[in-house]
Amino acid sequence: MSIESIIKSKVIEAIKVCYGQDIDDKTIQIQKTRREFEGDLTLVVFPFLRFSKKSPEDTANELGNFLKEKINCIEDFNVVKGFLNLLIDNTYWISVLNQAVATKNYGFKALEPGAKKVMIEYSSPNTNKPLHLGHIRNNLLGYSVAQILKANGYEVIKVNLVNDRGIHICKSMLAWLRFGGGETPESTGIKGDHLVGKYYVKFDQEYKKEMEALIAEGMDADEAKKQVSLLLEAQEMLRKWEAGDVEVVALWRKMNDWVLAGFDVTYAKMGVDFDKVYFESNTYKKGKAIVEKGLADGVLYQKDTGSVWANLEGDGLDHKLLLRDDGTSVYMTQDIGTAYERFNEFKIDEHIYVVGNEQNYHFQVLSLVLGKLGYEWHDKIQHLSYGMVELPEGKMKSREGTVVDADDLMDEMVNTARDTSNELGKLEGYSLEEAEDVYNKVAMGALKYFILKVDPKKNMMFNPKESIDFNGNTGPFIQYTYARIQSVLKKAIDSGMEIPDLASDKLEISVKESMLIQLIANYPNIITEAGDATSPAQVANYVYDLVKEYNQFYHDFPIAKEENVDLRFFRLVLSKQIGEIIKSGMSLLGIGVPERM
RNA sequence: GGUCCAGUAGCUCAGUUGGAUUAGAGCAAUAGCCUUCUAAGCUAUGGGUCCCAGGUUCGAAUCCUGGCUGGAUCACCA
């Protein structure tokens, strides 16, 4: 039982004994004592004044005396206004450290039979262009949230829904046919997704040229937009694809394969993966039967022209189209179908979609429509809605070339990491492979931490001109602290010292040391909270706080050089445990830690 | 126009289930600390009408109302 819950139960007892009142434990607020006051934990007594009918100071003193008497690890207390500051003794804190050390996968809940089953969909790229910075945020969030949910003891299924069909891919296909001269990834040495993306841009350029020509000939601008022959051809291509035209399908397959091979490389570099990949070319017709059944059941309605709609006015929204006049599916229809299949096939308890906040409306509607259709799990779909990544110039636009390409960005990060590392020259004795592994970890650590430390739901700013820092509140700073700890431990062992499994609990420890243990004690709560909030940022900020405190400790206290053996052992155990938590917390963010850097 | 989200230091961000007459980090700036466990570190200094105005109460960056600013969205697109 944690010290907080012990105190809470005793506070309830105290209020009962002293003031004859039963209180809810929600009225009990225990927080970390502020730095500038003496103590470890603080009880806020204001809520109890209406029971005690005494001044805040008197109430706090009464409660303080009661708690000190009843809880033996409370050494002393002091009162500042309505705040009761409790001093917890060293023995207790050291026992907390020892417990953490003795716990395998400290802070993680094990996967047990009957665990909650969660599916998380993320990435979901289009196959007409390479991944960019926006996708990076999506992928890192999806992967990290999956890790965090697993750490909370959930069974997690990661899925990707690849949008491999539609007018956008036809545009790339058409441009490639028209202007490509038979180029392939092999013939050009260009990564498949980038090659296809090049023709997506090419299409847009040629489209604009033709449109302007039409306008110059006197055509109305709105009309010209629709009459560009390239667009008409692309639309024709999509019709052929849907009709199963052999040539179009073969070209589609070839170019999609190029892109998917490219994505695999990017995913591997990013360090994300999936348990199952869906393709829209297989799922885009799904949901039609469900919608037709809804129509038959009278929960949906049909217009004269044939289209099928959901009336959401009762929920304060509009009408939503689910089947077109010609009976074909729209995106919403497909999502209805795939959600149904997933809940049925996997018996999942919850489904999280990692999708940008531009689709908030879509997911709101999806849940409502599923509810209308009578699926009781309609409220088990959760939209993990994240904010846009903005550049100083504003939003990224792929066709205007203002995107930050994912592959380029990652490569640049690795180059920067390599240069910095070589400048500092700390990897002497490492082989080329070992060194490259460190550069990669540091580069990706910097990028991932930069993105994940920001609250997912907020928009974030990325300035490509100012490369991501390696100092301060950054991934490399955290990795560095880990490497530092490993170095101390290694030197201690090399010089013949043993690092015991447990620290002696009869020691005088400093305020800084007890603060570090309190941070360690809080790690499990952080994992729970990050899981509830689906927010890797909470883990990131926690690890940063921990590391910042540790570096101050490291600077001010000898560890392996401490003369007092028990104290030295304690500090080695403490350092080792903090290293474990850094590694563990970073793994929740999908970030690796190097032994040296 | 309707709906949703955000607004905290020059910049990037924490802090938001209401708590300490003193709102935190990092970057950038300035000044220090490497014959001692990794200086990708540590220390110090300066930097704020927590968008504005009201309200709720012992107490508000945090909750409520109204406004301002920015973003997203409201397709027989995805």
UniProtKB/TrEMBL annotation:
PROSITE patterns: AA_TRNA_LIGASE_I. The keyword RNA-binding does not apply. One of its GO terms (molecular function) is arginine-tRNA ligase activity. GO terms for cellular component: cytoplasm. Keywords: Aminoacyl-tRNA synthetase, ATP-binding, Cytoplasm, Ligase, Nucleotide-binding, Protein biosynthesis. It is an enzyme of class 6 (ligase). Residues 5-88 form the Arginyl tRNA synthetase N-terminal domain. It catalyses: tRNA(Arg) + L-arginine + ATP = L-arginyl-tRNA(Arg) + AMP + diphosphate. A motif ('HIGH' region) lies at residues 125-135. It is found in: Cytoplasm. InterPro entries: aa-tRNA-synth_I_CS, Arg-tRNA-ligase, Arg-tRNA-synth_N, Arg-tRNA-synth_N_sf, ArgRS_core, DALR_anticod-bd, Rossmann-like_a/b/a_fold, tRNAsynth_Ia_anticodon-bd. SMART domains: Arg_tRNA_synt_N, DALR_1. Its EC number is 6.1.1.19. It comes from the Bacteria. Monomer. Belongs to the class-I aminoacyl-tRNA synthetase family. HAMAP family: Arg_tRNA_synth. PANTHER family: ARGININE--TRNA LIGASE, CYTOPLASMIC, ARGINYL-TRNA SYNTHETASE. This is Arginine--tRNA ligase. It comes from Ancylomarina longa. The lineage of its organism: Bacteria, Pseudomonadati, Bacteroidota, Bacteroidia, Marinilabiliales.
